[in-house]
Specification:
The chain is of the alpha/beta class and 723 residues long. 29% of the residues lie in helices and 20% in strands. The chain has 23 helices and 28 strands. The strands form 8 sheets. The chain has a 6-stranded mixed beta sheet with strand order 16-17-18-19-8-20. The chain has a 5-stranded mixed beta sheet with strand order 13-11-10-14-15. Strands 24-21-28-27 form a 4-stranded antiparallel beta sheet, with no helix packed on it. Strand 16, helix 18 and strand 17 form a beta-alpha-beta unit. InterPro entries: C2_dom, C2_domain_sf, EF-hand-dom_pair, PI-PLC_fam, PLC-beta_PH, PLC-like_Pdiesterase_TIM-brl, PLCB1-4-like_EFh, PLipase_C_PInositol-sp_X_dom. This is Phosphoinositide phospholipase C. It is an enzyme of class 3 (hydrolase). It comes from Cyprinus carpio carpio. Keywords: Cytoplasm, Hydrolase, Lipid degradation, Lipid metabolism, Transducer.
């Protein structure tokens, strides 16, 4: 992670001598305009602050050989040989000036440091032994090996000769080859490492979703107990976590609010009845105000767990929200969206730049505690308690000192007094009673919270009903209280049920969090992802446990693992694990390569049969996960990519750290193929006919299988179109 902070948000020196050097205490020193803080770190917790005052000189950049050697301590001789091949200095204390370390020199260095025999073999198999590809050969290679076979040629034309000519000129290192319209194995390698072969479809990374749908139609990146930097029972609470979560694109943050002690009586945020530290509510609000819209301009929801049973302190909380957030705080309703049954929620676009408060809201807001006790609370509490989990916690080892609820915080929330209640509008928490009751009330602005175990039970017993519920209004899922180590549950089952706010512990970069980070990397990191049509449309119901979706053509994914590049700085054997994450009836097999034949962390190879995942029911809600490990199981890198964002063909998959940060060099070279899945009963049917029959099936309220086959056979006789 990285972030820059200037002006009043920068960290300023406190030592008198330092302040004197920069004249910081003089009225016209303008020191705020000169201050800059850069925050960096491998994750949201372990941060380093680099504090600067305006500098006038920039030192000349030089590359130090000893730094390059340290990157590959186990292969010093290989590094020295590669430097020599590129006519670069190789002495330990030598330096390389930028004008010497040219692009051509760098390419030569890489070719000798990390040879690619597997690409030479692919090249040779396609050219029948020739030492070059002609323009025609490369055209055939691009159209047959790199192109997605599912694409319609009229809508997505084949590669044109002019495009191929440009690629050769761009990537072929030999000017004589390029002038003859030929590309060498080295040129092909550079092409396969270039921007044209990004494993991720770049248009998917950019903001591409329709942001004008009602908010319940989106998955929303959400954090649980945002203030914690470690476990749920002990450790440091920090306002910085709110900044980091927002900078990571998070759009829903949690604030556990408690009454402050005399004499200041400042409201605090902490994990109640635990040994976690306390932070000021005001400091958190300031941190949120500073970072709320740096990464995403779309609305932020603040989920208050309010234990402040003091009118005065709740008034302070409301005052801080109003004055610090200013116009960003949504207080007044949008005219088009009254809080009435049957009316939809506003869209992310309509709430752009706004902060919404989720807090208990009384029907008759009270200004005094005694009034609050008498107030009719037909808005109900949200379902934050699960007896089974609470009992588990009481009987667990961790409960020797603490007894906490399933959400992790002891004690009931209190009624919102008048000032806080006035801030609540489109996100009103209510206790969940039943799906029938929610449908009868038909209030899109009502949200219910579910502990993960309650959510799992609902998915098992009422999945279809929950999908229907989430089309209209919102659900928030949170970890069970026994996760005192701040581990996370898998978000995938809840996404398949259409749940919007799947809240995770951001301080723990385990697999569920990695999946969450990978998913929300798309749509411009807005923190909002439009749910698939099957979990939004009102005219059809969706069962996550189905083995067939009428309107969707399933896919088959084939992936062959060829080699790895710069996987480790040690002499170790390495292996790759590949799995698919999707619907319950999707293929669940996890594949593994054998360990590389020799200890080699720079360019190991695997020459094995491709891995096949057949019949992926809903490709838009399935994800490919690839993990690289040392022999013995040590994690080296991973990548999770949505199936609908995968580019087919030969690709280099650049790996990520456990905290989903891009690793500079490590990658895995693969071949990916995604095809439409056609059932064995319809083998030989062309795709155009099969797709058309699916559309008929979708609009005719389910043709019988027999009728479907008869219609299909008739159409197959009458068509010659192949797509």
């Amino acid at each position: 992670f990285w972030d820059t902070r200037a002006g009043k948000y920068a960290k300023l020196p406190k030592h008198p001598k330092v302040r004197n050097v920069f004249n910081m205490d003089f009225p016209d020193s303008h020191h705020l305009a000169k201050a800059l803080t850069i925050v960096t770190g491998p994750d949201t917790v372990n941060l380093t602050y680099h504090n600067f005052f305006a500098a006038k000189e920039v030192a000349q950049v030089a590359y130090f050989i000893n730094v390059i050697l340290k990157m590959f301590p186990a292969d010093k001789k290989r590094v020295e040989a590669a430097l020599a091949a590129a006519n670069l200095p190789k002495g330990k204390f030598d330096t390389i000036k930028p004008d010497v370390f040219t692009e051509a020199a760098f390419k030569t260095f890489i070719l000798h440091l990390c040879p690619r025999p597997e690409i030479n073999e692919i090249f040779t198999s396609f050219t029948k032994g020739k030492g070059f590809m002609t323009k025609e050969m490369l055209t055939k290679f691009l159209n047959e090996k790199q192109r997605d076979s599912r694409l319609n040629e009229e809508l997505f034309p084949l590669v044109r000769p002019e495009q191929v000519k440009n690629l050769i000129e761009k990537y072929e290192p030999s000017s004589s080859n390029a002038s003859r319209g030929q590309i060498s194995p080295e040129g092909l390698m550079f092409y396969l490492m270039g921007s044209e072969t990004s494993v991720v479809k770049l248009d998917k990374l950019a903001q591409s979703h329709d942001m004008t749908q009602p908010i319940p139609h989106y998955f929303i990146k959400s954090s649980h107990n945002t203030y914690l930097t470690a476990g749920q029972l002990t450790g440091v609470s920090s306002p910085e976590m709110y900044r980091q979560c927002l900078l990571a694109g998070c759009r829903c943050l949690e604030l556990d609010c408690w009454k402050g002690k005399p004499p200041d009586e400042e409201p605090i945020i902490t994990h109640g009845f635990t040994m976690t530290t306390e932070i000021l509510f005001k400091d958190v609000i300031e941190a949120i105000a500073e970072s709320a819209f740096k990464t995403s301009k779309y609305p932020v929801v603040l989920s208050f767990e309010n234990h402040v049973d003091s009118v005065k302190q709740q008034e302070k909380m409301a005052h801080y929200c109003r004055t610090i957030f200013g116009d960003a705080l949504l207080v007044d309703l949008l005219e088009k969206y009254p809080l009435k049954p049957g009316h939809p929620m506003p869209s992310p676009s309509e709430l752009m730049g706004k902060i919404l408060i989720k807090n208990k809201k009384s029907s008759t807001p009270a200004s005094k505690p005694e009034q609050a006790k008498k107030a009719s609370d037909d808005r109900e509490e949200h379902d934050d308690h699960d007896e089974q989990d609470e009992e588990k916690m009481k009987n667990s080892d961790e409960s020797a000192l603490f007894v906490i609820s399933s959400q992790g915080t002891a004690g009931q929330e209190v009624t919102a007094y008048e000032e806080m209640s006035a801030l609540v509008n489109y996100v009103q928490p209510n206790k969940f009673i039943s799906f029938e009751n929610a449908a009868k009330k038909n209030k899109s602005f009502v949200i219910s919270s579910f502990v993960e175990t309650k959510g799992e039970s609902l998915i098992a017993k009422n999945a279809v009903d929950w999908v229907e519920y989430n089309k209209r209004q919102m659900s928030r899922i949170y970890p069970k209280g026994t996760r005192v180590d701040s581990s996370n549950y898998s978000p995938q089952p809840f996404w398949t049920a259409g749940c919007q706010f799947v809240a995770l512990n951001y301080q723990t970069m385990d697999f569920p969090m990695q999946l969450n980070m990978a998913l929300f990397e798309f749509n411009g990191r807005t923190g909002y992802l439009l749910k698939h049509d099957v979990v939004r449309r009102s005219d059809k119901k969706f069962d996550p446990f189905t083995d067939r979706i009428d309107t969707i053509i399933a896919s088959t994914l084939t992936i062959k693992i060829y080699s790895g590049q710069f996987l480790s700085d040690k002499h170790v054997k390495t292996g790759v694990e590949v799995e698919l994450i999707g619907l319950p009836k999707d293929p669940k097999r996890k594949y593994r390569t054998k360990w590389s034949t020799t200890p080699n962390g720079i360019n190991p190879e695997w020459n094995e049969e491709p891995f096949v995942f057949e019949k992926i029911l809903l490709p838009e809600m399935a994800y490919l996960r690839l993990v690289v490990q040392e022999e013995g199981g040590k994690f080296l890198g991973h990548r999770i990519i949505p199936l609908d964002a995968l580019q087919t063909g030969f690709q280099h998959i650049c790996l990520r750290s456990e905290s989903n940060m891009p690793l500079t060099l490590p990658s895995v070279f693969v071949h990916i193929e995604v095809k439409d899945y056609i059932p064995a009963a319809f083998a030989g049917t062309d795709l155009h006919t099969y797709r058309h029959m699916l559309s008929l099936n979708a609009t005719s309220n389910n043709l019988s299988v027999i009728t479907f086959k008869k219609e299909l056979m008739q159409m197959t006789k009458n068509t010659k179109t192949k797509i």
